[in-house]
Every structure is written in C-alpha cells, then in structure tokens.
Amino acid sequence: MDPKATKTLTLKAGEIFELEFHETSKDSIFIEKAHKGPVMIYLAPLASNGVGNVWFKIFEKGLNSNGKFYTEELMTTGGKMKFAIPKDIKAGEYLMRTDILALHTAGSEGGAEFYPNCVQIKIESDGKAQPRGYAIPGMYSPKDPGILINIYDKVKSYKIPGPPLYSKELGTTPQNQEGEIPEEDDKPEKGKPEDGKPEKGKPDDGKPEKGKPDDDEPVDDKPLVKTPKVPVGKKPCTGRKRRRHLK
Q: Which of 103, 120, 121, 218 is least buried, going by the fewest C-beta atoms within 10 A?
C-alpha cells in the first residue's frame, strides 16, 4: 500500500468483487504457509478518518468444516478472495480495511500477528443503512479466544475475533456468518424460527434453506485490488511495514 496514493475505487453495493494479496510484489507469494488464521473486512465512513466507533464488519472467514483456516484456502488461490458490499449500505466514500490474522505463534499472549490493508472506496448504492461501529484499536483484546490460541492442539472450533458481522445485527449483508455469498435473491424469511422449522400456519414446502451460497453463481475473475500485506501499526489504517503483536 502506498500511503501517498490518491486513487479511489468505485464499488456497487451488492456486486461481487475480488481482492488479491501478496507479500511484496504481484509475483510474490500470498503469505508464508505457517501463517494460518482468519480474514476479516471492515468499513468506516471516510469522513471519520477511521477514528472512534466507526468500523463495522462486512466479511469474516475462519476455520472451515475440514479444519482448515481461511488463509490456507487463499494459499491455493494465489491470494485471491471474493466478497460483496452489503446491498443496503448508504452510498458514499469509505475506508475499507482487511485484517489477515496469523496464529502460528498465538499460543502465548502477544504472539498473534495482524496484517491489515486499507483502501479508499466509493460505494454506489440506493441503501440508507449506517451500521453500528466499533473502534480500532479497541475491538480486539490480546486475550480474545480467537487471538490467544494454540492452533497445534487439533482445533475443532474457532471464534473469529472482533465485533459481530453486520448480518448478525440487521440480517442484510450479502455474506452469512461464515463469510460466504448466497444467491442474490436469497433473503432471510421474516418470522422464521432459528431452528429451521416452518413458520406457524405455513407448510414446509421443501425449499432450500435461506442464506445458503450458490456455488454456480457467475463471478468476474478480473482482480479488483492488488495490494501487498501491510503489517498493522498504531493507526486504524497504517502504511508502516511492520507487524503488530497485541499487548
């Protein structure tokens, strides 16, 4: 990331885009194989300069059903990942921050390593939503179970650190809790119980569960952003090239 860069990316809410990460240059690897962990994406209004309770999470992926962390999946895709801006987010300019968390030395307090990237974007949308925000620094604690963890102890479950996904608060983000993108027309049914039972007075018509991803959805493979990992510094969106251990 170039701290002197002045370009702004324009994204349309609800569409699927692709990010691409490399250690240094386009020809370098995504990340060292030992650096296993989750990936999170946050947005904050540009006018806030990223200061205060302004960051809200729109994407997260941690441990999958096969016991693999999301960074391991990105190692097989050349550092490419897909995501979508929630459809109902208010139009305007935002800071977008991606956090890659490496847990290879997270067995002791202060051992986890954060690698964030920040870009400035302009969102085109008809939405009006302004989600609740959280502060960076402040949303993470070095004792969080997803930050202080020994990943060599056959991890069976994993709690992704940080605040809840925007979907958990209002149920309107294109990503579900695992960060996957469902069919465009899928929306949670109002009043439907969490256990998946049909709403009282309505038959179970055998339709697929709402919010499940559509693996056949066409996606434009053209990368949107190609930016190297930038270790975290003291500011919400820093360009300092060093990693940070929470203390």
A: 218
